[in-house]
Amino acid sequence: MTEQFAPPPSRGCSNTPVLKERGQHEVFCGLTGIIWLHRKMQDAFFLVVGSRTCAHLLQSAAGVMIFAEPRFATAILEETDLAGMADAQQELDRVVSELLARRPDIKQLFLVGSCPSEVIKLDLAKAAERMSAQFAPNVRVLSYSGSGIETTFTQGEDACLAAMVPVLPQTDARELLLVGALPDVVEEQAVGLLEAMGIGPIRVLPASRVNDEYGIGPNTLYALTQPFLTDTHEALQRRHATYIAAPFPFGEEGTTAWLRAIADQFGVSEAKFAEVTDAPRARARKAVAQASEALRGKSVFFFPDSQLEIPLARFLTRECGMEAVEVGTPFIHRAVMSSDLDLLAEGPTIAEGQDVDKQLDRCRDARPDLTVCGLGLANPLEAEGLTTKWAIELVFTPVHFYEQAGDLAGLFSRAVRRRDLLKLEAAE
C-alpha cells in the first residue's frame, strides 16, 4: 500500500503564541481517575482520605457494585479530625490496619489525598512511608493527590502512575513500556500490533498485578498513550528512561505515526510495518470517512478539560475536515505535545489554563458548530443554542488506535446530527 496520510502543514501550531489564562476555571475532581484505575490494577486498593462528599462522588461515578466488593473506599474525615481534636494519623493507621486484615488480597494500597485532607495538611506521604515499613513485604503503600483544587480530573491518573515509578526496580534490559491505563481490549490491540512487528518485550504501566511488574532503567523506552501523563513522563525521565515522542494514537493518522515512532526505535522495516498496519489502517480510514461525514466543513471550539484537546483537535481537523476555532487545554507540556502541535495547522487560538467567563464570551462570539466542554458548561450552552459534546465522555469511552477511530469520530458527529434532527423536527 503506497497511500500515506496528508503531509504536515507548512506551519503548525508549535510556534503559535499561547493565550495563557489564569482566572476562574471549571474542573472535575481528580478522584475520578480511581474509577478506571481500580479496574486495571487487580490487587490494588484506593483509600481516599476525604469527606462524605468525596465518598458520594466515587459512589455516584462508579455506580453501585452489587456482586463484587470494590477496590476503593473513603476514610471519612469527621469534625474532630478537621478541628484537630483527634490524631488523624492514628485514626488512619487504625483504618488501614482494619482494611488489610479484612482484605488480605490487597498487595498495593494507595492513600489518595483530597481537598479536605490537603486543607488540614495531613501528610499522607509520611503515612505511606510508615505503613510500607509496617506491612512490607506483603503490601506496598503509596500516596498521591487526587484533589481538584488546582488540577483537572485526568491528573489523578497521572499522579498515581508518577507515584509508582520511583519504587519500580532498576534494570538494564531493553524493553518497551506503554504508559497509561487503557481498556483491556484497546491495550490488547496495541500490544498485538507491536508484537506482530517483532517488538518486545512489552510492559504496561500500570501493570495488572504487582507480580507482573518490571524494572526501569537507561535502556527502557517508553511511549505515552495519554497526553495528560506529564508528571509520569518527568518521573520516567528521572529514571533515565528514553521517551519516544509521537502524536497520540487517535485516529488513523495518529495511530500510524505513534506506531511508526516505536517501530523506528526497534528497527522495524517499512515492509514489515506495512504488512502489519495496512489492513487496520484501511479499516480505520473507511470508518472515519463514514462517521465524519456530518463534521466536514464544521467549526469546533474546545474548552480546557481533559488535556486531550490538542490531539483531538489534530484528529478532527486533519481526518474529519473540521476547522478549529479555539483549542483550550488545562496545561501544555511542550515535550509531550510538540508532535501534535506540529501537525495542527496554524489558525486556531491555543489557550492554556482558563478564565471561564472570558472563554465563554469568545465561544459565544464565534458561534461554533460544535463546542467540546465539561458537564457544568454543556447544558447552559445548549440552552443558548450551541451544540456541545461532553469532554469527559472522551476519557471513559475506548477511542484509541485503529479499531476505535470510527467510534471516536462518531462521538463528535452524533452531537452534530442530533442538532440537525432537532432543527428538522422544529421546522416541521
TrEMBL record:
Its cofactor is [4Fe-4S] cluster. Keywords: 4Fe-4S, ATP-binding, Bacteriochlorophyll biosynthesis, Chlorophyll biosynthesis, Iron, Iron-sulfur, Metal-binding, Nucleotide-binding, Oxidoreductase, Photosynthesis. Binds 1 [4Fe-4S] cluster per heterodimer. The cluster is bound at the heterodimer interface by residues from both subunits. Pfam families: Oxidored_nitro. Its EC number is 1.3.7.7. One of its GO terms (molecular function) is 4 iron, 4 sulfur cluster binding. [4Fe-4S] cluster binds at C29, C54, C115. Pathway: Porphyrin-containing compound metabolism; bacteriochlorophyll biosynthesis (light-independent). Belongs to the BchN/ChlN family. Component of the dark-operative protochlorophyllide reductase (DPOR) that uses Mg-ATP and reduced ferredoxin to reduce ring D of protochlorophyllide (Pchlide) to form chlorophyllide a (Chlide). This reaction is light-independent. The NB-protein (BchN-BchB) is the catalytic component of the complex. This is Light-independent protochlorophyllide reductase subunit N. The lineage of its organism: Bacteria, Pseudomonadati, Pseudomonadota, Alphaproteobacteria, Rhodobacterales.
